[in-house]
Task: inverse folding
């Protein structure tokens, strides 16, 4: 595993390998760890099959001056290629002629479009503060029954994390009993290649705090008993690209040591929280990674996007059938004007556009952890509602560890509070998430919990 280093004067292409992983051997009674290993191994095996004939062709293209270098985002079915800008057209034509490659696209910038409203004062010491999104979702009722997300891990794909923050430190999987940190297998920096966890933007810390963070006196997160790990794929300015994201997703599927060695799928999270997206809902750059998540039993939660209130604005990868796409609502249970509307631009097997969003959560005026010290920041966006759903899914997986993504989707939909047009609609999907109702629905549908 290496961080993305894009050369000056070069053009970067992302090519999809024509992989055909065999996921059929995963049994229904397999543990989550076994599913992760099986799915990851199946993806690597499929990729190695393609590489057998692809690598000699790439080496010849390099010798011919068409390709400078390349890297694979293992497990995602993606090849990242740097070519000389002056010969980019010829390189593209040559790449299209390789039978091992499918779609080939330019590496595109992906920008965070969250509304950052600035720092807010931390609660006074000893004051019990419950943020409105925590109260609205009803998670405190679930916690009283011992369901806090214990034993579940959420993977954050974002700007990194301020793991020393009071609301995050005890929730980071890399925090040791003595308060020191072990970042290997718990943090990966696809942007700068740093070994120690950090956040120079605040977005990733805010997301982590909304999902699993908080202190006993300041409740910000939905699943304070869960742990999180993080990969940094966006810069201090909130800019990432397809390549950095693919490298981050590769690490999520099988976290590594700081030097990139020792990839271990058993250390992959149970949920991957994605508060980012491409405004083009038809883009498929991450689809093979999402298929691997599905096979591995890793639930992908994705922000719907902030391009509302126009319809047909769900971005990718929230538009994917494997994603649980999340819209945003405010304190009064109104769908936020910025929240992207459905349906997806992707069709199901019957030729119908997929209904999206899959659920809505609190996403306006959300207070959570910031990038430095113990600062707190207010933000608005579906970037804030998605990690709330990630935390609530962590609560579900504590009690029902073998739920598939489709089962989670069903539980959330059938337990949602209807907040917009009656029934499922393009603004809120089935409605706003309700944690106690979701736990009850899971027990009703899937029997006695583990």
Result:
């Amino acid at each position: 595993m290496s961080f993305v280093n894009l050369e000056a004067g070069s053009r970067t292409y992302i090519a999809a390998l024509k992989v055909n992983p065999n996921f059929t051997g995963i049994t229904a009674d397999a543990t989550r760890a076994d599913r992760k290993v099986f799915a990851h191994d199946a993806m690597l095996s499929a990729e190695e099959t393609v590489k057998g004939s692809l690598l000699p062709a790439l080496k010849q293209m390099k010798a011919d001056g068409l390709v400078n270098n390349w890297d694979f985002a293992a497990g995602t079915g993606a090849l990242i290629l740097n070519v000389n800008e002056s010969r980019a057209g010829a390189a593209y034509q040559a790449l299209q002629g390789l039978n091992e490659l499918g779609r080939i696209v330019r590496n595109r910038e992906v920008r965070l479009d969250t509304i950052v409203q600035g720092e807010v004062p931390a609660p006074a010491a000893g004051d019990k503060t419950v943020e409105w999104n925590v109260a609205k979702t009803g998670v405190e009722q679930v916690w009283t029954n011992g369901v806090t997300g214990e034993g579940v891990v959420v993977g954050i794909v974002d700007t990194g994390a301020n793991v020393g923050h009071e609301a995050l430190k005890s929730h980071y999987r890399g925090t040791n009993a003595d308060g020191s940190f072990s970042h290997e297998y718990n943090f990966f920096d696809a942007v700068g290649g740093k070994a120690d966890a950090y956040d120079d933007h605040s977005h990733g810390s805010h997301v982590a705090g909304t999902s699993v963070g908080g202190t006993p006196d300041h409740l910000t997160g939905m699943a304070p008993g869960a742990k999180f790990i993080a990969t940094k794929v966006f810069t201090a300015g909130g800019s990432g690209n397809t390549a950095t994201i693919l490298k981050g997703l590769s690490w999520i599927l099988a976290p590594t040591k700081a030097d990139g060695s020792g990839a271990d799928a058993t250390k992959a999270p149970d949920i991957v929280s994605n508060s980012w997206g491409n405004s083009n809902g038809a883009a498929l750059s991450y689809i093979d990674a999402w298929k691997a998540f599905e096979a591995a039993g890793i639930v992908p939660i994705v922000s719907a996007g902030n391009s509302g209130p126009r319809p047909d604005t769900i971005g990718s990868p929230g538009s994917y059938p494997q994603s649980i796409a999340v819209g945003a609502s405010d304190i009064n249970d109104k769908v936020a004007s910025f929240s992207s509307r459905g349906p997806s631009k992707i069709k199901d097997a019957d030729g119908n556009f997929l209904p999206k969003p899959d659920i809505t959560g609190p996403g306006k005026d959300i207070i959570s952890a910031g990038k430095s010290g113990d600062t707190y920041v207010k933000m608005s966006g579906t970037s804030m509602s998605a990690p709330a759903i990630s935390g609530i899914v962590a609560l579900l997986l504590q009690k029902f560890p073998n739920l598939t993504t489709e089962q989670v989707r069903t539980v959330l939909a059938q337990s949602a509070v209807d907040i917009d047009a009656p029934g499922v609609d393009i603004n809120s999907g089935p409605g706003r998430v309700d944690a106690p109702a979701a736990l009850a629905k899971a027990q009703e549908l899937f029997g006695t919990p583990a």
Q: What stands out?
A: Residues 10-107 form a domain with the Alpha-Beta Plaits fold (CATH 3.30.70).
